[in-house]
Write a structure and sequence with these properties.
The chain has about 375 residues and is mainly α. The protein is built from 17 helices and 3 strands. Strands 1-2-3 form a 3-stranded antiparallel β-sheet.
């Protein structure tokens, strides 16, 4: 195997999964055989979480029971609240989730693998509570109650952020967003979780490692960086001119292209239309038009399509979500995929230990200290 061919493990299979298929026909994404387009239109995120973690979409009774179960797992233990209060407002929210997940593993440890579904459900339910308890305490000086009767994970997040019932349109968009981000085969953070799981480590360690991997700007932060760029432009003309200038200077434009998809990212068209609806709701006359023009320029000039992150930036912005919380929303969703992959790895495990192509010096002898230059 040459080092050129193995760079980033591109194009190589690292195992098998029944959870997700990415990139078939150059543009598809399916969770356990279901197209993400159909799931986003006909299912809720709670149903998708059930599908990924338990293997099948729930019937009406199972869905009601699962939603009630998740609502009952939103509470923060007092010890975890104390830890979250020690984290400064200047911390990156991803670091908060990393710390919160790791600490939860100390006070609610997974002591046997037959607890794994319980741990997965707890992590899914508690992620918004951890994030928003820290955010509201560190930024607003208030200790919020993380228990509420919002039906969905996304609605729960918005309720904690705004101290008010979630706007129905916003709750719907959040639910779709969580569906789109729930799973994506052997991406960097998921592969991190599976490598950790292959050592027979606990679920909290696997998810903590995955959060650390997603923390890197080449994986989970594209929507934040896209937002930082888009909000600078005051007009469509300014956006078009600046993108042309960036391309001429060979600068990277975040939110475009993909490591697996070759024709389009199927998630993009879905979130684009929801972003459009949100822009109309808030009376936006600039940001969505700017986003569309940037997307068109990137296609005309580089034949690069927008990926899922690009229009998520404007969608989250229109809902009043602070930009630093964009990537943590990814965690709130992808924890379903991570936990499902951990369980799949455990079910047919062999420690993941690939080889490497050595490119260092040939064999040599150790010279005497006095003979070294």
């Amino acid at each position: 195997m040459s080092t050129a061919a193995s760079a980033g493990l591109r194009g190589q299979s690292a195992g098998q999964t029944a959870l997700c298929s990415v990139g078939a026909e150059g543009n598809s994404l399916r969770y356990r055989g279901y197209a993400v387009d159909d799931l986003a239109e006909q299912a809720t995120f709670t149903e998708v979480a059930h599908l990924l973690l338990r293997g099948e979409l729930p019937n009406a009774a199972a869905l009601e029971a699962y939603a009630e179960r998740l609502r009952g797992l939103r509470n923060l233990p007092p010890a975890l609240r104390t830890v979250l209060e020690q984290i400064p407002a200047s911390a990156h929210p991803m670091d908060v989730l990393r710390t919160g997940c790791s600490f939860l593993g100390n006070i609610e440890p997974e002591t046997a693998f037959d607890q794994q579904l319980d741990v997965a459900d707890r992590l899914l339910a508690i992620m918004p509570s951890m994030l928003l308890y820290w955010y509201r305490y560190s930024h607003d000086g208030v200790r919020i109650d993380t228990d509420n009767d919002e039906d969905s994970i996304g609605g729960h997040f918005l309720r904690l952020l705004n101290d008010a019932p979630a706007d129905p349109l916003h709750a719907k968009v959040m639910d779709v967003s969580l569906i789109l981000y729930a799973e994506h085969e052997f991406n960097a953070s998921t592969f991190t979780a599976r490598v950790c799981a292959s050592t027979l480590s606990d679920m909290h360690s696997c998810v903590t490692g995955a959060i650390g991997s997603l923390r890197g700007p080449l994986h989970g932060g594209a929507n934040e960086m896209a937002m930082a760029m888009l909000e600078r432009y005051q007009s469509v003309a300014e956006a078009e001119a600046d993108v042309h200038a960036k391309l001429a200077a060979k600068e990277k434009i975040m939110g475009f292209g993909h490591a697996v998809y070759r024709q389009r990212d199927p998630r993009n068209a879905i979130i684009r239309e929801w972003s459009r609806k949100l822009s109309e709701q808030v009376g936006d006359e600039r940001l969505f038009a700017v986003s569309e023009r940037v997307e068109q320029v990137m296609w005309d000039e580089k034949k690069l399509f927008a990926n899922a992150d690009f229009y998520h930036a404007s969608a989250y912005h229109f809902m009043g979500i602070p930009t630093p919380l964009f990537t943590p929303i990814f965690v709130m969703s992808r924890v379903t995929g991570w936990c499902a992959h951990v369980m799949e790895q455990r079910a047919n495990n062999r420690i993941i230990r690939p080889g490497a192509d050595y490119v260092g010096p040939d064999e040599r002898s150790v010279p005497a200290l006095s003979a070294r230059d």
